[in-house]
Structures are given as structure tokens and as C-alpha cells.
Design a protein that fits this description.
Bound molecules: adenosine monophosphate, magnesium ion
Structural class: alpha/beta
Radius of gyration: 32 Å
Number of strands: 28
Strand content: 25-35%
Shape: elongated
């Protein structure tokens, strides 16, 4: 038997980020960038107005107040989407704001030459006498405006030539938005790994079958596929193999395009644990048993050139083994640098036994009381009790060296869902 850490290390040594592929922008959500992004243009690309109002020279509004507004002559308008302002009246006036002039301007429009600030409509007589300033050719400004007010400068978000993202960046919605505004419709990212999922067992039947005596439905493939999906991989269900070597071989024919094969069941000491026979006969396998609870029987190796992680059949053991071994492997294939779950320290509210010198992953509920973190094991810890994972929100880790963990002892707690972590840290319970 080897330790959890050694098993992890040996498994992870066999995985590297998948070869990057140029990918449509929207398909890159959640994926890891494999190229540096250098801005080809500035954002915003031109200096423009942040408000609907009037482009002015700030110095013309000096001392302006409601009783003594600054009166400016409106010489034209600047709608968004045009390179330069349009005349209202006298086309002989040069197209730039000189002292005493204003140009009606809309949000996002290019700031006209000569202007250095924008007065919001709300700070003019616009609202008292709508549209009259336009016909009168005059606007009254009721406030002193500072230089640069309501102006968005070219490159204030991103400067042309600067490094926007380094390789390794995980792309979220806002990252995609920046790439879009820079004109990238495709990006180079590590693709999503394809993960084949095979269930095994003579007693295991598809989930939409009626149960005959002695049969159970295949819940493992559903849970594993959901976990693969949540981790960022593409699950591919390849069915249920009977406890016969040929049947395992037959099903694994459909996994040739997989980056990793996950099987469940058939690796323990039972008479019919044929995945094990199959792997011994046709694969290169090195890991057989791990000091983990729930779990222990597990295998890792290769069939042809595809890595295979043979998980235990018991539903909770399969999930725990997935989280410890398959999850970091999938994250590494995705090019992610951080392979770890969120870890915190918390005190046990109940004692936990841990015979057999295995690292015990206890399904538990993490909560906060008077600012302190506490963790309560869920009542049923059997490796077949899938509902324990629904009632818990974390795994409390009891080290292999401890034969028991008394009430109040501090343990490491692993959280696999950032939203659960956020909720715990936001709320007292
Ligand atoms: P095994 O490792 O094959 O001995 O299976 C251990 C336990 O897990 C047995 O009770 C199996 O019936 C159960 N089991 C195996 N595969 C599945 C599956 N795909 N879905 C639900 N339970 C399973
Ligand atoms: Mg079985």
C-alpha cells in the first residue's frame, strides 16, 4: 500500500497540459490561455465622453453657479459613432472648440478638438428648457467643471502594446470581454480533456431500467460525469461492462480518443473483480492499493497509451478517489497551475475513529460559530452512503497517523465548491 501523497505524485507525473488549440472566443470560457495577449490597440481607442451633455473648455465654466451660469454658444453636435462633430449653424467657424463655445455630445462620442471636459445635461439649463438651447444656440452651465471631468481618455483601460494577459490565465467572462474589445475572436487555449467513464459489475444496470432482484442502477457514471464536467473536462459514458475480461475489453474499444479513462468497480478482492484481471493482463499498472478511506482498492496505469484510473465501486469511495486523484489530473490536462481544493482548518464537533493507518476523508458539514470554524461529520460514513455527500459540504481530513480524532481537535478541511466556501465565510450559523 502507498500513501495518498505518493499515489497523487505518481499519477500526476503522468499528466501534462494538452497541446494548445486555437479556439472560438466563447468556447474558451473557463479554459487556460496558452499565449501572451499583447494589446494591438488601446481601450478605449479614442478619447470620448462618459456622459450625455456638452463638450466644453473647463476654464470657461470657472465660477459658474445656478445664479450666475456660464453661457456658451453651441456650435454643433457630436453623436457616438462619427469620427468628428457636425455643425449646427455656421459652417465657417473652424471645427474646434474655442473659448465660449460648446458642442452637444453623446456618451461614447469622440471628444471634439479643443474640448477638455464634458458637462452633464443635468448641470445645464437643458432640463428646464429642453431642446431650446439647441435652437437658441446657447447653453447655460450651472457648475464649475474641472479639466478632464466626464472624459474617458484613450488607453485609460488598456494601452496599445501592453501585456494584457500572461499565458496561464484562466479565462472568465470579463477576460473574454477584454479579448473581444481588442478584436480577438479566437484564442490559443489548452482544450478540454475528454474523459471516458466505464462502469463495471454484473449487478449494475442502466439508470432507466427496471430493477430485477439483485440489481442496482449505475449511479457512479452519472456522479463521475458530473464531477468531470464540473472540473472542466468532457465526460463520455462508455456503458457498463459485465464482470468478464472480454466485456471490459469490448467497452474500452470506445475510449481511443480519451485523454483519461475512469472505471468504477472491479478492483477490490472479490472473486469477480475482473477489471483488475484485465488491467493485469493487458495494461501497465503500478498502483494497486492506497492508504485512503473510504477507497483503498484502486489502480492506476495505462492501456495502450491512455492513462486509466480504476476507481473503487462503492459510490462514496469513487467520489473521494476522484477528488484526490482524477480531479488534479484533469486540472493539469487543462493547463491549470493550481490543482488544490480550498483548504481551511476547523475543529471537530464530534470524535472520529480512524483505524488502519489510512487517511480518512470524512464527509462533514463546515460551519462558523462566533467567528470560529467548526466541522461536524455527517452521521453515516459508510462508503456506500451517497447521501452523506449531499448532506455534507466538505471533506474533513483525519491524518493516517491518528487512530482517533477527539472532539475539539483541529483538522484540515477540503472544500471543492467555491460558492460553499464563500457562503460559509459570509454567514454566521
Ligand atoms: P466492487 O468494487 O465492484 O466490488 O463494488 C463495490 C460496491 O459498489 C458494490 O456494492 C457494487 O454494487 C457497488 N457499485 C459498483 N459499481 C457501481 C455503480 N456503477 N453504481 C453504483 N454502485 C456501484
Ligand atoms: Mg463489482
Amino acid at each position: 500500500m502507498i500513501s495518498v501523497d505518493e499515489a497523487r505524485e505518481r499519477i500526476l507525473a503522468c499528466f501534462a497540459p494538452l497541446t494548445p488549440r486555437r479556439t472560438p472566443l466563447l468556447d474558451a470560457l473557463g479554459l487556460v490561455l496558452a499565449e501572451p495577449i499583447i494589446a494591438r490597440e488601446s481601450i478605449p481607442p479614442f478619447t470620448n465622453s462618459a456622459m450625455d451633455g456638452y463638450a466644453v473648455r473647463a476654464s470657461d465654466t470657472r465660477g459658474a453657479c445656478p445664479d450666475r451660469p456660464a453661457e456658451l454658444r453651441v456650435i454643433g453636435e457630436a453623436p457616438a459613432g462619427t469620427p468628428s462633430p457636425r455643425w449646427f449653424i455656421d459652417e465657417a467657424i473652424p471645427l474646434r472648440i474655442e473659448s465660449g463655445m460648446a458642442i452637444r455630445i453623446m456618451t461614447g462620442a469622440v471628444l471634439p478638438p479643443g474640448a477638455d471636459a464634458v458637462v452633464r445635461f443635468e448641470d445645464t439649463d437643458e432640463s428646464d428648457t429642453p431642446s431650446t438651447s439647441r435652437s437658441r444656440g446657447v447653453v447655460r452651465v450651472r457648475r464649475e467643471i474641472t479639466t478632464g471631468e466626464n472624459v474617458r481618455h484613450a488607453g485609460e483601460d488598456i494601452l496599445a502594446g501592453s501585456i494584457v494577459f500572461e499565458p496561464g490565465t484562466v479565462l472568465g467572462p470579463a477576460h473574454l470581454g477584454l479579448l473581444a474589445s481588442l478584436g480577438y475572436s479566437w484564442v490559443l487555449v489548452h482544450p478540454r480533456p475528454r474523459i471516458a467513464i466505464l462502469a463495471t459489475g454484473d449487478e449494475v444496470v442502466p439508470i432507466d431500467w427496471p430493477l430485477e432482484p439483485g440489481q442496482i442502477r449505475n449511479s457512479n457514471s452519472t456522479v463521475l460525469a458530473a464531477l468531470v464536467h464540473q472540473t472542466g473536462g468532457i465526460p463520455k459514458l462508455v456503458g457498463i461492462a459485465a464482470d468478464r475480461e472480454e466485456d471490459v475489453a469490448r467497452h474500452l474499444q470506445y475510449t481511443h480518443d480519451a485523454d483519461l479513462i475512469l472505471t468504477s468497480g472491479g478492483v477490490s478482492q472479490g472473486d469477480y473483480d475482473r477489471i483488475k484481471e484485465f488491467l493485469r493482463a493487458r495494461g501497465r499498472f503500478e498502483i494497486w492499493q492506497v492508504r485512503i478511506k473510504p477507497g483503498k482498492p484502486m489502480a492506476f496505469g495505462f492501456v495502450a497509451d491512455t492513462p486509466v484510473l480504476a476507481l473503487p465501486g462503492n459510490p462514496v469511495a469513487a467520489v473521494v478517489a476522484f477528488l484526490q486523484f482524477a480531479r488534479p489530473a484533469i486540472l493539469r490536462l487543462l493547463g491549470r497551475a493550481d490543482l488544490e481544493p480550498i483548504r481551511v482548518r476547523a475543529r471537530l464537533t464530534k470524535p472520529v475513529e480512524n483505524r488502519g493507518r489510512r487517511r480518512h476523508f470524512v464527509r462533514a458539514l463546515l460551519h462558523r460559530r462566533s467567528g470560529e470554524l467548526w466541522v461536524t461529520p455527517v452521521p453515516q460514513q459508510g462508503s456506500g452512503i451517497l447521501s452523506s455527500l449531499v448532506h455534507g459540504n466538505c471533506l474533513a481530513v483525519i491524518p493516517e497517523e491518528w487512530s482517533e480524532a477527539p472532539v475539539g481537535s483541529e483538522v484540515t478541511v477540503e472544500l471543492y465548491d467555491p460558492s460553499i466556501a464563500a457562503a460559509i465565510f459570509a454567514a454566521e450559523s
